[in-house]
Design brief:
By secondary structure, the chain is mostly helical. It is 64% helix and 4% strand. A hairpin with a 3-residue loop joins β2 and β3.
Length: 477
């Protein structure tokens, strides 16, 4: 019996490996509901599980699954070595950060260990779970936004409501984070919609996609909105390319580019239209008289640059009269950089004062020790993944990550323009969240510095894109 069990495990080890990582990914997705439980599981003994999973993968597959995996492993090793060079010889201070790295490698490898049919099944399970979860959160967000009621989640004492004067947050997470949640979940919905064999299922998928779109709009995350619009343009060009019968290449390319630009523009403008429509719904539901309590903050205290959320003491409570004056449109201009360029200007000063950072980086809690005294207010990150890696892991870390970036973008280009019959529109759409993730990282420290649903999902998509390209190359050879 034990021999049979061992044989079954050997035969299905790829599926068991993928299912384990799917469970971890879903747990990270549900983390906002009870962050205390998630932290105790995933940042305690869970860290050792990440190392074991990575060792399991490398034992059976080695480094033969492409340069992306090799570079990711090298990046993790340099991360550990740079900590040792900084004096953390036994990784006592930042060992927990190093041990998160293997989980990125594992997520990257999921697509490589599964067949195309298995990858499809994996995405259906993951996409279905994410679609339902974020749709329910989105309905809660839209209710709060339209009725101007803040919903408190008692278990973690965080809420869904207005923050930064006019932007919506969900379960205490920053609007930019929430916006990218909905971009990734929308990409999964698009994949499910295009891959759906029963057309009747496309109706609820389309409704959920609309809820995602409106929820993203209420966050007023310009980074997510621009990336969502760019993805919409690329998707429109992808759909038109299959229907276009024009043979002249220049005319064909011009039509596809114009379609992408038009679709992206309309999608971006649609965010303002959506929040305006929600504002009209609010006006139609508003009571004739709304009285403010003395304890409520004034309008002046709730300026757009005021980052402290309104913490309410009741599960559901109508906001004050001043809250009803909060705009349903983004008062910021598109060129408002939210002090990012001020942050970038401090980068040369960092390396002027501590040139050794170019070689070995610095400790995580010292990343902004030089920048913050030069800024009007303290920041928590440099708001650019590549600058953050240069500062934290030096030039060797940056070179490894730049090489990884180039290879991933090359894979995306190959898959998006692939003429392989097996590469359906649904499969090609997996390129979109990968491109959005790298684009999002230009203005956020995101791709390596967070171990959450967003980052892990991006590495999962990167692995799936890489697997499709590798399989098509292997078939041609």
């Amino acid at each position: 019996m034990l021999n049979q069990l061992h044989r079954n495990i050997q035969e299905h080890r790829r599926e068991l490996y993928a299912l384990t990582l799917l469970g971890i990914l879903l747990l990270f997705m549900l983390e906002p509901l009870n962050s205390y439980l998630a932290w105790s599981l995933l940042y305690g003994y869970g860290l050792y599980l990440f190392v074991v999973l990575a060792a399991f993968y490398l034992y059976f597959h080695g480094l033969r699954d492409g340069w992306e995996i090799r570079l990711a492993v090298a990046f993790v090793l340099w991360h550990a070595l740079s900590r040792i060079l900084l004096g953390d010889v036994v990784l006592q201070k930042e060992g927990y950060l190093v041990m998160k790295g293997p989980l990125m490698v594992c997520m990257l490898s999921v697509g490589l260990v599964l067949s195309r049919k298995q990858r499809r099944r994996f995405l259906h399970i993951f996409g279905g779970a994410a679609a339902i979860f974020f749709t329910l959160l989105g309905l809660m967000d839209l209710y709060s936004y339209v009725t101007r009621k803040a919903l408190v989640y008692a278990r973690t004492d965080v809420f869904t409501g207005i923050v930064h004067g006019f932007r919506m947050q969900i379960l205490g997470y920053h609007p930019n984070t929430v916006g990218f949640w909905y971009l990734l979940s929308s990409a999964l919905l698009v994949y499910l919609f295009l891959d759906c064999r029963r057309k009747a299922w496309r109706i609820p998928l389309a409704v959920m996609l609309l809820i995602h779109y409106l929820t993203l709009a209420t966050t007023f995350s310009r980074n997510s909105e621009l990336n969502f619009s760019a993805c919409a343009g690329l998707l429109a060009a992808l759909l038109l390319e299959k229907k276009l019968r024009v043979r002249k290449k220049t005319v064909r390319a011009a039509l596809l580019v114009l379609t992408a630009l038009l679709a992206g523009f309309l999608c971006f403008k649609g965010f303002g239209f959506g929040t305006g429509m929600l504002g009209k719904i609010h006006e139609s539901l508003k009571h004739p008289t709304v009285t403010a309590t003395a304890a409520e903050p004034t309008t002046a205290e709730r300026r757009p640059d005021h980052a402290t959320p309104v913490m309410l003491s009741f599960p559901v409570r109508t906001l004050s009269a001043s809250d009803t004056e909060i705009p349903f449109q983004d008062p910021r201009s598109l060129t408002n950089d939210s002090q990012r360029f001020l942050i970038y200007k401090t980068v040369p000063e960092i390396f002027r004062q501590e040139p050794m950072r170019l070689l070995r980086g610095c400790f995580f809690d010292e990343r902004l020790s030089i920048s913050n005294p030069l800024l009007p207010e303290n920041k928590t990150m440099l708001h650019d993944s590549w600058l953050e890696i240069l500062n934290y892991m030096g030039i060797p870390g940056l070179l490894l990550f730049l090489a990884f970036t180039v290879l991933v973008l090359k894979d995306c280009f190959k898959l998006y323009f692939s003429a392989v019959p097996e590469h359906t529109t649904a499969i090609k759409s997996l390129v979109l969240p990968v491109l959005a993730g790298f684009s999002f990282s230009i203005l956020e420290s995101f791709l390596w510095f967070r171990t959450d649903f967003m980052t892990l999902s991006c590495y999962l998509f990167i692995g799936f894109v890489n697997a499709e390209v590798r399989e098509s190359c292997a078939a041609r050879c």
